[in-house]
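Weekly structure sync, notes
Attendees: PL (lead), two postdocs, one rotation student
Agenda item 3: pending single-chain targets
PL asked that the sequence for the first pending target be pasted directly into the notes so everyone works from the same version. It is reproduced below exactly as submitted, 316 residues in total.
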Amino acid sequence: MPAKSYQLETEANGALNLACQRAQPFAAAARAAGTRRVYSGALKRWQAWCAEMHATALPAAPEAVAAYLAELARGGKAVSTITGALAAIKHAHASAGLALDPHSPAIAAVMAGIARCASRPLRRAAALDLETFRTLIARIDGTDVRALRDRALLLIGFFGALRRSELVSLDIGGRSRIDITAAGLILHLTDTKGQAATETLAIPRRQDALCAAAALERYLAATQLRRGPLFRAVNKAGRLGARRLDATSVRHILIARVGAPTFSPHSLRAGFITAAAQAGAPEHLIQRVSRHKSVNVLRGYIRAGEPFATSAAHYL
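Predicted structure, written out during the meeting:
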């Protein structure tokens, strides 16, 4: 049904209009929260550019979209950023019942040229190797709430190969939760990147200071948390609050504990993948933890972490 006719029908039918409004939260949940934030920011930048150029943002002419993408490339934006901008514009059109073909000649030609001329090496987060990570955890001493929280957060983030949005979304109870068992931790992850269904992964117990389950048990014993957000803000007096940590907080915690902005939150995820590969773990088992849909993306982490160890020249 055309968008205009659909609008007239919903306006004429109050019950149908209400039902459509109730469907919006489910439509919004089709994409992970991080993706929605990225799309929102990209769409605002596109609309601002259109206003400056006196162009129509929705519906957009393919030639205008192509010109905008070329402007991003001239501004030094990475190909991945430009591809994301195009995806956000396409999504905005689809949400409004409008059509935008990203494969139209104008857009396709510019994107092909950008890929050929404006690409630059992909910058990956530095991987936290296992020994560096072990040293980092050992430096988080003390039994205060902040130290207990940070130790549990970093260990779960590393051995779960979690994205920072997944890490801060963990609850005690609820949908995105973490269960403690005799064998270790079981994480039930919702609202993950590129995945609508709940994903489950396990973090086994260890017999050393890097045991995520033991760290979590000490944190929960000290805080007596029973429900709600797992990782929360700690005030200046050292008391745990009710507010959930946001994704940016993970970066601040990691930098504060490392002492320099050498690593990013993604270094936890990259570090586990690299360390597991160096230890000889099969790719399919690493992928089960990292939940990468593409093994080629997974191998990118492994090659970046051990370029000489994976060289075929060793066999000559």
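Discussion points:
- The domain at 130-305 is CATH 1.10.443.10 (hpI Integrase; Chain A).
- The radius of gyration is 23 Å.
Action: rotation student to compare against the earlier draft before next sync.
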